[in-house]
Amino acid sequence: MDGSRLKELAYMQQTLDRSINPKRGTIYDTTGKNVLAISSTVETVTVNPGNIAKEDKEKVAKKLSELFELDYETVLKKVTKRSSIETIVKQVEKEKTDELRMWMEENGILTGINIDEDTKRYYPNSTLASQIIGFCGSDNQGLDGIEAKYDDELKGEKGSIQRHTDAKGGEIGDEGENYVPAVDGNDLVLTIDLNIQSIVEKYLEEACIDNECTDGGNVIVMNPQNGDILAMATYPSYNLNEPFEPYTDELKQNWDSMQQQDKTTALQAVWRNKAIADTYEPGSVFKLITASAALEEGITDTDNEGEFSCTGGIEVAGVRIKCWRYYRPHGSESLRQALMNSCNPVFIGLGQKLGVDTYYSYLEKFKLLEITGIDLPGEAGSIFLAKDKVGPVELATISFGQRFEITPIQLVTAVSAIANGGTSVKPRVVKQIINSETNEITDVPVEKDETVISKETSEKVLSMMESVVSEGTGKNAKVVGYRIGGKTGTSEDGVNTNKYVTSFLGVAPIDNPQAVVLVTLYNPTGEGGHQGGGVAAPVGGQIFSEILPYLEVNQIGEGAEILEEVQTPDVLGKSLEEAENILKENGLEAVYETDSEEIDKKNTYIKEQTPKAGITVNKGSKIYLK
Known about the structure:
Blueprint: H1 3-14, E1 15-20, E2 27-28, E3 35-47, H2 57-67, H3 72-79, E4 86-92, H4 94-106, E5 113-122, H5 130-133, H6 145-149, H7 151-154, E6 159-164, E7 178-180, E8 187-190, H8 194-210, E9 217-222, E10 229-235, H9 249-254, H10 260-271, H11 274-277, H12 287-296, E11 308-310, E12 313-316, E13 319-322, E14 331-333, H13 335-341, H14 344-365, H15 392-399, H16 408-419, E15 423-425, E16 430-434, E17 441-443, E18 448-451, H17 455-470, E19 485-492, E20 500-508, E21 515-522, H18 532-550, E22 565-567, H19 576-585, E23 589-592, E24 609-610, E25 616-618, E26 622-625
């Protein structure tokens, strides 16, 4: 009457399964040659307590605890337990298990101890691209990054070793063991380029240390033509081979005395991929979006001489919003000059002419009101006011990049549409999946969407971006022999926090963009200050100087200029008059802020300069003075 159920129970009771872990798929960089993550062969030791003779149990427990450095009492409890199988240790090196095999043979213990093949995840480059790749748990399950997002592809299928046993785990019959092989996981080829990632991480770390960025920073390099993420770095990073260990000297000193919750918080902070998971106010970089919308709608053009006039501020609904250079207004400007000068009132005026409905329609087209859908876990969405809640003042602040938040990946994706001729493209980190059994390659498709702006508008914005780097606030990003465009940004990190986010977004080469680079530094507190042009733009220039030759981008396109480099002189303690003269003699321009409308240059002295003395910059660069 109950035959089928009892038969199933009998099978479960009389069959001992030992699982065989598959080899997790290998992760390669974009070349398909450089290994970013690989599984090495190790072994797992289990015991069948019922198959170990009573007189051998203590001896076995002693050997296992000594060999694998385990607690003797814990091991003895497992060896003497009334159960069919107990795990002693996972993922141990073969030299250890070979020693166990020899001991078993010498002591005539041929049953009750099982040694099965297993795999262990290994990351050859330790900290490189840590927040992208992620890591695995002790059971080889992906816990973060690509390892988690593509776990189903990477993990494979477990195999097993089955045999019939009695209630104590002893063998029944002489059928032997039934071996079901494991199926290895599939390999992944990323869009990440090992060399570009290394270059980016080097300059990001230097920038965060030199500028004392208390909250770290990140850099994204994206190919705007197909959405490939060539590099994505967050500082600080961590060792993928030891993801649960302290990662700074300070944490290492205090680790043993810290509460578990504090340890968890510290680890989760460094695992977090700020480039996709953290939102921020983009500041003046966002003027590229406003300019694109205004040009596309035919409201303005790039070089209408004297079309705009900066008087140091603009009144919106009874609120006066200042230009950053309110003390020395920009005066008469074209759109190109306004972008070069990063003049707030001009972009506020453009936002007013566009109106809320039209402006928000461009936010939608640029995919800024939704996540990008990049193939990484934990992507955050933007934070904008609902359209019906946006008044004149709110529209004004949005127009020059403040009082809303987006992620760095959203900004890079939006500007990539400007760079590639006007088409929205989805960012991706994995470009190929390789089947472990057949070696068949499946390409992950490039996903392009609607046309955001016309090719004509795209070319106009790129032309203005080139002017920003050649003559405007982005001069410190110049690279000899290459046509680079960009935009700098500085914004508050929250309201009344006295913290700042400084950034630079660059595109190169202007005539055929192959890379969009976004540098974002959180709360720089060093002597260099927190202005995007002085702090973030030089980092962008350093990155371009190495990745453009690596990408085999031809030098000196039509209209490019060869730039002479100079070292910044020391003007600290000098009068403003002296400082201006010294900088002028070196081919540099002095930029400064003051609350006074009239300045006594002979009796006003310099207390800070950015960049600081001794830094190599291009002639014509701006030096920011306080």
